[in-house]
Amino acid sequence: MAAPDLQMIPPAVLSAQAALEIAFPVLPSHAALCIGVTLAPALSAAIPDCCHDYTTASEQERAGRFLHADDALRHLYGRALLRRAALAYGVMRGIQEFDLNPWGKPVFPGASLQGNISHSGMQVWLALARDCEIGIDIESAQAPVDFTDIAASFHPQERQSIRDATDAPQAMMRCWSRKEAVAKAVGRGLSLPLDSYAVDCGIGAIDWLRHAPPGTALPNWHCVDLPPTPDHVGAVSAHGDCRQIRIWQLNIGTGSV
User: Fold this and answer.
1) Inter-CA distances, 61 with 48, 56, 142, 173, Å
2) Is residue 58 part of a domain?
3) Which of 79, 144, 150, 231 counts the most CB atoms within 10 A of its CB?
4) Is the pLDDT of residue 232 over 90?
């Protein structure tokens, strides 16, 4: 299967008050769209107000239980962004709870659209796709101190790559974000055994899946790194007939692109 056309949409800046007033582009069949939002740290009080109209009472109640305002902000904005997209693309009517698959991934029954969200720090990413499965993950670039213990559950090739890497902590986080994106595209998240598929742990923006998850074929996967930042690494994976992947970065209240 041919590699999809990878496109970067020019970045944009939105005010806190217009944080969800996004003009979603046309999403054709067999295409994916990744929207990465950087939230200004000072917005912890302002953003939840604009999220109110696009989140449910249970989501708002859960946000109220977070100990840290930034955690509540990411939770609310991520859910609001996915629901705002679902409304814009006509797969949801009104503000209602998301349908979930058995592993907790939001689904839109009867629609060709799939959606997935991930957040870390002040980054919130949304992946949308038509006619293919999609998964996205964003992680801190800082590896935990016990990263070698975590990597012990990875595929043998990944474990060896991390051991041999001159930048082992960074290789671990590249590996982790890529594996998460694949597992989320499958729809099983961390219930998919981490040693049942393998990614390349090196620096390489595309085509880094080396062994496909059980029940899938490697040529049907399209895997791309998200634009890196000094603080984060990320990845997106599409499974199926995906012919285009577009990446669009938005900054909310930061004053810069």
Assistant:
1) 12, 9, 31, 32
2) yes
3) 79
4) yes
Distance, in Å, from the CA atom of 134 to the CA atom of 228, rounded to the nearest integer, reads: 19
Pick the residue with more confidence: 248 or 70?
Answer: 248
Does residue 21 belong to any structural domain of this protein?
Answer: no
Q: State the residue range of the domain holding 184.
A: 5-16+29-252
Decide if 24 is inside a domain: no
Q: What is the CATH number of the domain that holds 208?
A: 3.90.470.20
